[in-house]
Design goal:
about 140 residues; alpha/beta; Nucleotidyltransferase, domain 5; five-stranded mixed β-sheet; two-stranded parallel sheet; 3 helices; elongated
Length: about 140
């Protein structure tokens, strides 16, 4: 008398009934945490080159100021005069105390304008300033 092993006749499949729920949750998660570009750059600029640069990790704390070839200054989505820089950045620092100001200026802009912007930032008590540049290869 010999005994034979009986094998269960169940299918070894991965259950896919909850797959649409998981996909929907992932979709909602990425929709909530993704930030879109909020600013359209209105000034023309070419960043100066640098030998070494450092990347800012937390971009949510960064506020950008663009200075174009034609001495136009842009903060957020609007062009502003030099006299408005202090007021706008003071309000920004009041709302976000850890703000980092990233100054992106054209390489041909004279340093007198950059110094004036720096003085306005000092008066607004925005002391964390980052100068944007392109890496020189």
């Amino acid at each position: 008398m010999t005994f034979e092993k009986r094998r269960a006749k169940t299918k070894q499949e991965i259950p896919t009934t909850s797959m649409p729920d998981i996909v929907f949750m992932l979709l909602m998660f990425f929709m909530c945490v993704t930030t879109m570009r909020e600013v359209d750059v209105l000034v023309q600029f070419k960043l100066p080159e640098a030998k070494a640069i450092e990347k800012i990790e937390n971009k949510r704390l960064v506020s950008y100021i663009w200075v174009g070839k034609d001495r136009k200054i842009q903060i957020n989505d609007s062009l502003v005069d030099l006299g408005k820089v202090e007021e706008l950045m003071y309000l920004k620092r009041k709302a976000l105390p850890e703000v980092i100001v990233s100054l992106r200026s054209d390489q041909s802009v004279d340093m007198g304008l950059i110094t004036d912007i720096q003085q306005a930032l000092r008066k607004a008590y925005c002391l964390r300033i980052n100068y944007s540049a392109m890496i020189k290869v």
